[in-house]
Structures are given as structure tokens and as C-alpha cells.
Amino acid sequence: MRLSRYFLPVLKETPADAQIVSHRLMLRAGLIRQHTAGIYNWLPLGYRVLRKIEQIVREEQDRSGAVEILMPTVQSADLWRESGRYEDYGKEMLRIVDRHERDMLYGPTHEEVVTDLFRSIARSYKDLPRNLYQIQWKFRDEVRPRFGVMRGREFLMKDAYSFDLDEAGARRAYNKMFVAYLNTFARLGVKAIPMRAATGPIGGNLSHEFLILAETGESGVFVHKGVLDKTVPADVDFDGDLQPIVDDWTSLYAATDEMHEEGAGAELGDDLVSARGIEVGHIFYFGTKYSKPMGCTVAGPDGAPVDVHMGSYGIGVSRLVGAIIEACHDEAGIVWPEEVAPFKVGLINLKSGAAETDAVCEDLYAKLEKAGVDVLYDDRADERAGAKFATMDLIGLPWQVIVGPKGVAAGVAELKNRATGERVELSFDAILARLAG
RNA sequence: CGGGGCGUAGCUCAGUCUGGUAGAGUGCUUGCUUUGGGAGCAAGAUGCCGGGGGUUCGAAUCCUCUCGCCCCGACCA
């Protein structure tokens, strides 16, 4: 993409409305623009990041055996009356009345819809287990939206719903999501730590929140320092026994301030790390909470109807854009992990309009594109070097290729690593080899 | 939903107390110069001063109603 033809409104000054660093950077780097309170336009650069995250989430869900569907954003209130949540949900639910005076709502979550869908299709225990997921926009009418996309009213979420014959099956489904989440966050380039979460009326220990550690996180977290060094096993067999992996990750203390126990923390002594975190995922087993009132049953092996055991599993996709920036930035701007970066390379022509740098840049640009490398080429003729550097640092692409007249005369350009700041002068071919490899 | 704050040029913000021709910086346009870290000089364009009603000879400024946004708290992916 040529910057001269793109739609990238970077701001030199910090917008007055934005308080936290990710919100400020998302506005300054031209990722989003606010439409109204808690609702955002996604501009090209931000939308690319959103899609990258979405795709990684999708691939890891698929790999774990979940099946993608797409459910409606607008739902019938009747379903929520069946589950008993219509009145409970309160003002967070955006309620709509259609032309026939029927009560509708903009979905804040999809347990009711997916349970209704599944009960209309599944007849036998042989239809189990299943895990259906979607990546869909939701709306919760937060009293007080803030922090940009981290706490918007409209947000993009991956939500999965598992259906099993019994609790043991549900636990296997739960473990699959647990491990899928570990894989997902690792690929996203962030460290997300599973922490025991409140399970509500269901009880048990099958609820975990995944939190990214960041100074500006909204929740206080207390973790055993050993958790920070845990790694994700490669090439997990999702049909095998995942319990050892889950046990390993949950063996060390990790809790948000809500769940924190002073005593347990004190026992850890120097091993206790106190930090802040942003919740980006939540997995939850809730048994027959919806299947029972909504009549989602299948015939068991003995022919008798069985209430299906369910769990739900969320990842805040749009929130992750902000959360990743919270964890990955410096004074100059965003520092994208390569997997989610909107472009891999920023190509800077320090003297657009000069024949020699233009020729080198055009050649590098064409060859990188041909090699399948996402490149944002700053070909603007009316910006000076300093402005181009500042813009490129702000938007945080992992690699910068800097082409100036002096280097071109010597047959080299500069390759800069955004994260480390390291720069090396290399021949054009060597740069191509490094970036296309 | 309780408490507080703010709406003035694309952006950041003066001006409001004490009514009297709409301001600065930055950005934008044009020209010249400049050319490796958000350049310099010169010229220029840009505003229903959030909206309605009122007071007044006269309102960005005072009164009133209203809409929107932000912050703190309670709440939450």
C-alpha cells in the first residue's frame, strides 16, 4: 500500500478525550475514530489489525475442533424470557421494538440463541460433543464506556459454546478451550495468564479468566512468578488428554484481586508478583443452566432424554487491539507484535521525487509485494524525513526500510527493527532476503 | 445511575468572571527556500462560539431549557 493513496489520519497532538495510552495511540495512529460514546469506526490500519487478530483466533478455534457459525446480532426477546434472563439483564441490554411491536434486542451474548439453535437440531447423544463458535459484534449498553475499544459498548467477540452429555464431557470441552486460548494468546504475541474466576451459582472450578499483564490494566492480579515463565506446548493433540497441560498451568497461584486470598498470597512470600491485568478471555462451564429451562435435551444411550451440559468461552477480539497496545508500546508509539501488525514493513523514501531513491523504493516495494510481504510504502512527496520517521514509529510496524540518497549512492538501505531500535545497513538484496524469508 | 467537568477553526486550546467587529499554536492551500528525526520565510482559506428560547441597543460571554462528550464512583468481555 502506498501511503499517498491510503487513509491514515495520524494526529500529532493527543486527543483530549483519550485517557489511557492505548486509546491515545489508537486515535493518534489512525486506527479508530469515535462515532459516539463507546462506538467506533475502524479505519484501514486498525481494521487490518482487527482482522489479523480475528484470523488467529479463528485458526486456533478451528484447530481445537470448534466449528464456526454466525448468529444474528438482533435477537428475539422471547428466547430471553424462556431462559429467565430478559428481566435480569437490566439496562445493559439494548432493547428494540420492531414495527410489529415485537420486543427485540441487540445481542449482548448468545447463550439463548445458540441453545435454541442446538435444541432444534441435536436429537441424540451421538450429536455430541459439539463446540459452536462465532466471531460477531455485540452490544452492551455500558453505563460508562471508557478506555476506547477496551471498554466500548459495541465490541467484537469470539464466543464459543460447547455441548456435552455430562460434566466429564464438558470438562474435556473446557480443557480444549483452555489450551486453545493458551495457543491463541501466544500467537498474538502477548502473555495472557489464566486465573481462577468466580463460578457463580454453578460452583466447581471450571471458570478461568485470561489476563494480559499491563501497567494500565483494570484489575489487580497476584501471581506466582513461576507462572510468568510457563510456555505453551507445541503441536497439542486436541483429541488426547489435555488435563496435564491445564493442571500444569493452574498449579501455581494466579488470581485477580476479586479472587485473591491474602493468606495464600502471603505463603508465596517472594514468589508472589503483584501486577495489573486486562481481561481478554473468559471460559466458563455452566452445566444445564440454559439447557434445562429451554428444553435442550438429547436422547441418551438408554433412550431417556438428557439435559445437555454447556460451557461458554469468550475472547474480546476488539478489546485485544487495545490490550496488545497497552502491553506493546514505547514513547514513540505502538510496537506491534509481528503476528498482528497491520503491515510487516514500512518502506520510507526519504526523498520522494528524486529519481535515485524513487527507483530503489519502487523496486523494493514491487519485490516485497510479490513475495507476499505486507508493505506500507511512505511515498509522500510533501513530507520531510523527520515527519516520515515519526509517523512510522507511531504506527509501529515491526520493520522499517529506510531509503535515502546517501545510502542509495553506496548501494545500501537501512533496516530498522522497531522494537529494539537496532539499525543495520544492508544491500537491497540482503534486505529483501531478510524480510521475505 | 449518583457526583464533577467540558462543548469556540481539522487538532490542542485562549477568550466567558467584568456583554461591544472571532483569537493563538498546529494542521490545511499557494510560492520560494530546505531535505536523515514531526523544517524556515511569505501570503492565504477555514468558524450557525453544540442547539432552542430569553434578557439587552448589542450575547461566545448573562438567564433558561436541551443535546452531546469526558472524568470519579458503582458495574462490566
TrEMBL record:
Residues 38-337 form the Aminoacyl-transfer RNA synthetases class-II family profile domain. The keyword ATP-binding applies. This is Proline--tRNA ligase. Catalyzes the attachment of proline to tRNA(Pro) in a two-step reaction: proline is first activated by ATP to form Pro-AMP and then transferred to the acceptor end of tRNA(Pro). Belongs to the class-II aminoacyl-tRNA synthetase family. ProS type 2 subfamily. It comes from the Bacteria. Its main location: cytoplasm. InterPro entries: aa-tRNA-synt_IIb, aa-tRNA-synth_II, aa-tRNA-synth_II/BPL/LPL, Anticodon-bd, Anticodon-bd_dom_sf, Pro-tRNA-ligase_IIa, Pro-tRNA-synth_IIa_bac-type, Pro-tRNA_synthetase. Homodimer. The lineage of its organism: Bacteria, Pseudomonadati, Pseudomonadota, Alphaproteobacteria, Rhodospirillales.
